[in-house]
Amino acid sequence: MRLEEYWGVGPKTRATLVEQLGEKRAIEAIENGDVRTLSNAGLAHGRATRILRRATGSGGMDTLATSDARAAYKELLEIVVEHAVTERAADRIRVLTPLSSREAMEARLDDVLAARDAWAALADDDRETVLAAYERYDERDGSEHAAVEAALALLEAGVDSGPFAAVADLEQARLTDAARALAALDDGRVNEGADAELDRLRETLGVIEDIDANASDLLAELRSDGVRDVGQFREAVEDHLLTETAVTVDRVREAMATDAVDATDFIRTTLRALRTDLTAAIDEREQTVAGDLENTLEASRTAIDRAVTSVDDIALSLSLARFALAYDCTRPAFVEDEAHRVSRPASEPTERTPEQAGAVSVVGARNLTLASHDTDGSTQPITYALGEHGIENVPVDVNAVPGTERVSVLTGANSGGKTTLLETLCQVVLLAMMGIPVPAERAEVTPVESLVFHRRHASFNAGVLEATLRSIVPPLSAGGRTLMLVDEFEAITEPGSAAELLHGLVRLAVEQDALGVFVTHLADDLAPLPSEARVDGIFAEGLDSELELLVDYQPRFDTVGRSTPEFIVSRLIANADDRSEQAGFETLAEAVGSDVVQQTLVDARWRERD
């Protein structure tokens, strides 16, 4: 495949990559999902990520049928990235996309859950050892030496199951020798501390160079000691060098000048000869030591290469495992076998029966966006389902087991969590299709070809309506398995028209055997709905002692949720700044029901006493 055939690689990008990397290396970086190499070559990090998402998972990106679906996907990945153990792992997480087959999803789930269990079983000290090794690995930009050290840290921590088995088979003694050799060698040069004799020679040469730089001081010192004749002078220089340096007596005597014209010439000639001799000795010793180290590395090459690959792969698995642990994630069950679908060319619709539309169901699901900021565990878990689900035993506070309708219309109070429920279902489906555990006690997911997520966009602009319909209808009509998550469609057009269009969307979703949740305040205007659709509701229950809205975020099935203007008006009355303002709000209370408003305030005061 040529470089310019990859998505997002135009002439300018191609020229940059070829100039910095060469075409072969650039293609390897793209195929390997190597964000860092592309970024170091001059591509913006975000652009490199987008190119790699398409190169490694174009089918998965095509699943994200709307801009809101793509935005939710990116937001989700950033939550996962917070648990990455290296920058390279973070980059690899950012290019994960929904997978194309259940086999691939199951395989990654196996890997992540095995890593989760192995990591959870480690003692805190062992975890810190591994994380510190990965921190050094990151600081050294994933060098071979850092990779070998990380592999040794994993071995020492005793992790040997699941994805960690890749390093468990490596010979620890071999890796230890390789780590020492890699630490000792730096671009062919032997580092300090690698060989005691080489260190001694280098230190001696340094002292000789210092003496040579101050030869006049040595001459003055010898003369002040009363040294006068040639014999005494030679003996004094020898004693000084043997005392001040680690040079041997034989090396000093061999270096002493025999034809110097005066004392100054004698000292400088002798020191120059010593420097030349020591430099040669250092070069010879360094070549010997470097050769031995390179032989060690050659003998350890297979182990080193395996360590580099394994440590990088383990970093990804470990990062996903830490995410799964942080949010108490579980393995989703995939509903319906891939074999139940009839494969056809992309230009032709997929043949399905209603029974093949699949299901999405969650028990005790948590919204990750809320949970990531939840410091007191107050996020309410939700149970919900579409299609032929397997929910039987649900929490006691759920009014009933959800029906098996494939499409629901979700109603209820403002700030009641309807949008959050859509986001939660979107997150669960995306994580499951990426082969990552999901934040729920139980979950069933049918992989879909199109995920249509539409957030509320408040605008009556005709262009917004047209653009919205162009984005959400074609995926629904294309014939592939689709999940519709549409939030307050009525916000982009007039209420009367909105009810008619929304009813059409619900009917189209049913006709196309799609799964879907449509959030709306217009449920009463949508009747009669198709039998395959139901209406669910979320209810506010009053005000708390701080006059904040009390909401049961768990939907009630087959029940229309109601708006709660009386609760809002009650709060406005209680918080009014003066009597005239309060009187104005009391007029509104008469419109929504004065008795209900007064009872709401009484209940709030009782809650404050309690």
From TrEMBL:
A GO biological-process term = mismatch repair
Q: Which domain of life is it from?
A: Archaea
**One Gene Ontology term of the molecular function aspect:** mismatched DNA binding
* UniProt KW keywords: ATP-binding, DNA-binding, Nucleotide-binding
DNA mismatch repair proteins mutS family domain sequence ranges: 405-581
- Keyword DNA damage set for record: no
Q: Which Gene3D superfamilies match?
A: P-loop containing nucleotide triphosphate hydrolases
- Know the name of this protein? DNA mismatch repair protein MutS
